[in-house]
Amino acid sequence: MTKDEILYYLKTHHEVDMYGIFELADRVRKRYCGDGVHLRGIIEFSNCCVRNCLYCGLRRGNGRARRYRMTVDEVYQVAECAVDAGVKTIVLQSGEDPYYSVSELCRMVERVKELDVAVTLSLGEKSYRDYRSLKEAGADRYLLKFETSDKRLYALLKPDSSYVNRFRCLEYLSELGYQVGSGNMVGLPNQSSESIADDILLFGMLELDMVGIGPFIPHPDTPLGGFNGGSSGLTVKVIALTRILTRNAHIPATTALATVDPEGRRKALCCGANVVMPNVTPFSYAADYEIYPDKLTEDTIDGAKKLVSSVGRYVAKGYGHSLKMGGNVNIPTH
Ligand code: 5AD
Ligand code: SF4
Hints:
Elements: H1 3-11, H2 15-33, E1 36-46, H3 72-84, E2 89-94, H4 102-113, E3 118-122, H5 128-136, E4 141-143, H6 151-157, H7 163-175, E5 179-186, H8 193-205, E6 210-215, H9 232-246, E7 252-253, H10 255-260, H11 264-270, E8 275-276, H12 283-286, H13 301-310, E9 314-315
Parallel strand pairs: 1-2, 1-8, 1-9, 2-3, 3-4, 4-5, 5-6, 7-8
Helix pairs in contact: 1-8, 2-9, 3-4, 4-5, 8-9
The protein binds 5'-deoxyadenosine (5AD) and iron/sulfur cluster.
């Protein structure tokens, strides 16, 4: 697909065109990923963050956030319950929180790996050495969204971060043998259709194993609280176009999409997505992990399973590793 074609589809409101790309995305998903949907249990183990991204409720400047940190033992217990309920991947996510030393994080990874699961980390930017230690501790995958490919917008939204370093980190991660995920937000203030088209092209160029796409949702306790958020319709289009372009990347039906549209995840699963990431953080903490407002807290593994069967698909059995490595081996056999 050329940039002009992507742009055309991003902008069109013609039902026939939209139906066409949604149907094509669903066919590409079926052919390259199969009908199995992977469940990844997310544990948000700390909502403390040293950064000050303008869009995010966890930003250090938000004095109204109630902060928490989970211990390694707590994380282990929560992971154990999630594994009992049937997930084969645990995602350990936090703000950029230097309170946890790398050796403690390694201990966390090692403990969770005892449960015979894949471990995905989502801890933000770290040094090559730290990424290496965490890989050696057993981490399989790493998520680091570039959020927007638009350098100017990036600098505005992430005033204390460097665009160049973000991409350097993504390079480190693939060099170290992680399965790498990135992603963006859709509907950011001053985000043009051109820049969304560039995001989609970049997903393809980076040959990502995973791509997370969610709408921007304004949080009232941030500087962007007064802006409009991204729509479900545009986000689903971005998911469909990303599926068509990347073919076999793992693409989640995100929680953010479910937050702006009760049917959002179902729509995503029918337009290219093949992953659901239920939040398994204990309720008492999850309520405070408020990246954006009204985030689903009732986001259970059972709910995810029902969602999967409601679209005529099934929960995949394996770890759900990258499909980039051994070809597209995930064609269902039942
Ligand atoms: N709206 C939607 N997504 C957000 N994120 C952070 N803040 C928001 C928001 N206001 C997402 C970003 C980030 C992840 C931690 O959450 O994509 O990578
Ligand atoms: Fe911190 Fe990530 Fe939120 Fe930025 S987006 S403030 S780095 S948690």
